[in-house]
């Protein structure tokens, strides 16, 4: 009887550990994905600066959209590389 109880308790503990590890992994992956999406939306692909850094650091910077669409447009760089 004690052996059977030990097996049940052990199986429950191992199951609990596996479920908790899986939940932690899922939350960590979700957090990484959110961080990546935030970086994609709020940091420049070319210079790597964030939106706040650009607006505070560059005196002539008009807006974040201007920086992304004119100053550091990714497609302009691709066209330049293809031209070379
Ligand atoms: Zn930039």
Structural features, described:
This protein is mainly α. It folds into 2 domains: 1-42; 43-84, no CATH class. It is 79% helix and 0% strand. The chain has 4 helices and no strands. The chain has helices at residues 2-42, 51-57, 64-71, 74-83. The longest helix is centred in the first third of the chain and has 41 residues, at 2-42. The model has no long low-confidence stretch (mean pLDDT 90). The chain binds zinc ion. Zinc ion binds next to loops.
SSE blueprint and pairings:
Elements: H1 2-42, H2 51-57, H3 64-71, H4 74-83
Overall domain count: 2
- Which hetero ligands occur in this complex? zinc ion
Q: Supply the helix-strand structural class.
A: mainly alpha
Mean pLDDT: 90
The rounded distance between the terminal residues' Cα atoms is: 79 Å
The best one-word shape is elongated
Element-level helix/strand string = HHHH
Number of helices: 4
Report the β-strand fraction as a percent range. Answer: under 5%
- The low-confidence parts are none
Largest sheet, described in full?
none
Tell me the radius of gyration.
Answer: 25 Å
Percent helix: over 70%
Number of strands: 0
């Amino acid at each position: 009887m004690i052996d059977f109880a030990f097996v049940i308790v052990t199986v429950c503990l191992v199951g609990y550990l596996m479920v908790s590890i899986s939940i932690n992994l899922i939350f960590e992956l979700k957090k990484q994905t959110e961080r990546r999406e935030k970086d994609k939306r709020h940091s420049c692909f070319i210079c790597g600066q964030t939106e706040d850094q650009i607006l505070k650091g560059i005196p002539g910077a008009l807006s974040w959209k201007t920086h992304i669409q004119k100053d550091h447009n990714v497609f302009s760089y691709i066209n330049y590389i293809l031209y070379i």
